[in-house]
Amino acid sequence: MENLLVHFFQKKGVRRTLIFVLVALILYLLRSMMDLILLTFIFTYLMNRLEKIVTNRVPLNRRFTVLVLYIVIVGALIFGIVKYLPILINEITQLVMQLSDFYTKPQQNQILNTIVKTIQEKRIIDYMQQGVSILLNYFTSISKVSLQVLLSIILSLFFLLEKDRIVRFTKQFKTSKLSAFYDEIAYFGIKFVSTFGKVIEAQFIIALVNSLLSTIGLWILGFPQLLGLAIMIFALGLIPVAGVIISLVPLCVIAYSIGGGIKVLYVVILIAIVHAVETYLLNPKLMSSKVNLPVFYTFLILIFCEHFFGVWGLILGIPIVVFFLDVLEVTDHSPKPKRKR
Fold first, then answer.
1. Which end of the chain is more exposed for a tag (fewer CB within 10 A), N or C?
2. Cβ distance 224 to 80 under 8 Å?
3. What Cα–Cα distance (Å) separates residue 70 from each residue in 65, 78, 156, 157, 204?
4. Distance between CA 169 and CA 56 in Å, rounded?
């Protein structure tokens, strides 16, 4: 009986499952630090990709490149916060007042009055107020968020500066008494980077392009508060598929308040064009080898992840599910070898 148990736990599948459950348990116990862990991983992955892009084009020392990139990006962040944060706060305040005026004042269009009345009856405004209170809580705890971002940047900087040394040191566990544990962690780590990391990178690029295209279009249409709108569109663009559609609601409200129905039509056309660019140009190039989920499953994942994990669930739900699918070998994201003719 003892030999059967030993043989059972020595099976690769059983050992892998047990180690995965153990890692999940450890992460659950560290859930209070999850923001720091996720931000550190995201910063490290994106900066590592940026460093590789630069060094592939310009033959520079890797550590020097990392330092220069961090100095440039952190400097740009500080400059942007000092110069544009007051402008951004003012524009967001004006956007909130504009949306509030639309909601509280009766409209000349009977259809819009019916929609507003329905919103009131369905208590949707309560959910909006809850969202505003959450945002206020984030602003009041800005010192905590800033500290986490600062620590994440510092940790990612030290990791990239000593990446080679860290890799050499970590490989020593392969020949230690924890070799079985090391092999499985390495397996999950490779899977995690090749799915979760690449999907996050693709989402970031798509959100950036969508924000740029949408802001240019809104500028042509004569929209005010472009900086606040650009930040909103970028943040919503981090949500796969649904982000562009969600951003349509406040944009249509603002469009109606500044230009009536014709402006709303222009905004719908603009968002349709941006969505088409994302669907037919960006997604095939950036996401085709990483995400192959039907739209129904995508929305289902977003709904459940938002319910259980909040804002992080909207942004990270799809990458996490793709990682699990890859581990379970439901989908294979590794490049297929070409057959020789």
1. C
2. no
3. 9, 12, 10, 7, 18
4. 26
| pLDDT at site 127 | 44
Q: Hunting for tokens 């990791």 — which residue is that?
A: 159
CA distance 140 to 201: 29
pLDDT in tens, 99-139: 666 555 555 555 555 555 554 444 444 444 444 454 555 55
Contact yes or no for 334/194 (Cβ under 8 A)? yes
Instruction: State mean pLDDT over 277-298.
Output: 68
Residue in 291, 275, 287, 199 with CA at minimum distance from that of residue 241: 275
- The CA distance from 103 to 112, in Å, is 10
Tokens of 211: 């924000």
Degrees to nearest 5, angle at CA 175 with 170 and 181: 70
Q: Which two tokens stand for residue 114?
A: 């019916």
Q: What's the average model confidence in pLDDT over 180-187?
A: 83
What is the distance, to the nearest Å, from the Cα of residue 191 to the centroid of all Cα atoms in its chain? 18
Report which residue type is found at 34. Answer: M
For tokens 């996490």, name the residue. Answer: 320
With tokens 């819009």, the residue in question is 112
Q: What six digits make up the tokens of 253?
A: 């409200």
> Domain segments of the chain: what residues?
195-332
More confident residue, 91 or 307: 307
Is 80 exceeded by the pLDDT of residue 61?
Answer: yes
Which residue would you say has higher pLDDT here, 80 or 37?
37
Residue 25: how many CB atoms within 10 A of its CB? Answer: 10
